[in-house]
């Protein structure tokens, strides 16, 4: 039985005081062996909102859950109409200074890997290799019947053809690529089936309330075991999918460093939380460590 997801979290104890001094992160990076775990906060400077900061998407939007998506055609029409519109904007997002700094740290041999909770592909677009997409990618679509994977761009072209003239004005775009539309705006949108078997298509992402594939979780656990320290970038760590790796690192005695402006659910396990904008903090760290950052992919 699948459980309804935890969408919000409130501290139950005094939060770890944030610092504006990135020295603890600089020390960890200079020692090497750092595993990065990134969340929605690293992509906000690319124009993609996060979930839980002040003004984040959860203040106006409830993400699609696996339970709702599989419940029936009405929810799927609502999802695909909103997601199709959101893809037009989401797919044009470009990496920002934070993504580029992470890629530079990796090229410089300071990182052992990157795990991202994001589905936007911006780490890869910035040049990071071997990124583990914990929650999947919006750039792929999977059939729930036959399991065939296909490019999102291919489905987008089919949906454009089937829904000519569909151009409602959205109130906003969310971290999952979903646009804010009313039920009236999505009425009449045509949802298309799998071209192989006629089955239901779903973005190749882990919806809220859906489990991360066990093999992916175990691979990430192995990355934590191999790392010297864990660096969390832009995640509130509200959901267990990311928090479990923070707990694993802490239990193994590995330093956990967090760069996030607001308190997180993992603060109790962290050596420090740097409360600075990610682009600013990571660019400053790169300069401090004399790591050249590619500036050609400005968002």
Describe it.
The N terminus is likely disordered. By secondary structure, the protein is α/β, with parallel strands linked by helices. It starts with 17 loop residues before the first strand and ends in an 11-residue tail after the last helix. Helix 8 runs parallel beside helix 9. Helices cover 32% and strands 14% of the residues. The chain folds into two domains: 160 residues, Rossmann fold (3-Layer(aba) Sandwich), CATH 3.40.50; 101 residues, SIR2/SIRT2 'Small Domain', CATH 3.30.1600. The radius of gyration is 19 Å and the shape is elongated. The strands form two sheets. It has a seven-stranded parallel sheet, with helices on both faces. It has a three-stranded antiparallel sheet with strand order 6-5-7.
Helix-and-strand structural type: alpha/beta
N to C succession of SSEs = EHEHHHEHEEEHHEHEHEEH
CATH hierarchy class name of the largest domain: Alpha Beta
Give the overall form. Answer: elongated
Regions with pLDDT < 50 over 5+ consecutive residues? 1-9, 55-60
Helix content: 25-40%
CATH 2nd-level architecture of the largest domain: 3-Layer(aba) Sandwich
Q: Given the structure, what is the number of helices?
A: 10
For the record, give the distance between the C-alpha atoms at the N and C termini, rounded to a whole number. 41 Å
Total discrete domains: 2
- Give average pLDDT, whole number: 89
Main β-sheet description: 7 strands, parallel
Strand line-up in the sheet with most strands: 1-10-9-8-2-3-4
Rg calculated over all Cα atoms? 19 Å
Give the strand content. 5-15%
The count of β-strands is 10
